[in-house]
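Lecture notes, unit on protein representations.

Consider one protein chain, 312 amino acids long.
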Amino acid sequence: MSRAKAFDMTRRAFGAGLCLCCLPALARGQPATLEEVGASVFVRRGVDAEADAANLDGIANIGFIIGEQAVLVTESGGSLADGRLLRKMIRDKTDKPIKYVVLSHGHPDHFFGAGAFVEDAPVFIGHHNLPQALEMRGEFYRKRLIGLLGESNVGPVVLPTRIVTGEDEIDLGGRRIAFKAHAPAHTTSDLSMLDRSGGLFFPADLLFVGRIPPLDGSLTGWIAQLEAMRQENYGRTVPGHGPASVDFGPASDALLRYLTTLRDGVRAEIDAGGSIEQAMNHVAQSERSKWKLFDDYNKRNVAEAFSELEWQ
């Protein structure tokens, strides 16, 4: 069997292979609590679990920033129910208008909560590749989530109304927020954000802490983007998954180690004439004890990496 055919069969076998971290969850028994990680910046920590009826796809770190004139939602949540919970949290803190909602990339745990904010008529901010990503996968994800959570909990696929190509900036009133559209990395539509007033960095799922990162864009691209961000000397950071806030440098060490281990292991397998099945069984196994949900995602990551690297 050729490598190309074997890879195609493997991807079909992983057929939900459109990543179910890509279908994340609001955690089992997780209390609806907020942590103030910066002045008027609040984060609800997601849990390290797969999406299910108990957690309502609330696994991502979601939250909001309150400016003098307006509120920005940093991540909307993984379902309509998750987004509604976040909106209630916002209203418990302030009655200022919710003017902006960030759609950081095209994975369900980060955009299905947007439906809870449609009536606020905010600007939905997203990467220039996000509309295409949502048009390709949005309904697939929606149907999968309906099967898990029930239609009333899922909500619509909301497209961005303000597209970021390169860099952009908004003002919440005495508080400027900068955005950057990244080249393919975790996905093809990754958007990061910096709160200039306090230097708090929001890389979304370009940074995973503790939970294994799913690869859905470009392995070599992700390594390059991560190394570039490390050169910026960011300090306090809100990762897409993990603690509500971390120090970017030390927190990114583990992610860079895993991604380079994945890359080097797959390249070694390819150079030795090994098969994708062999690679999936042993590449990056040294990382197994270091990441939650490792067995759920590492083989899929190896398959994605093999596809990218075998022709390089």
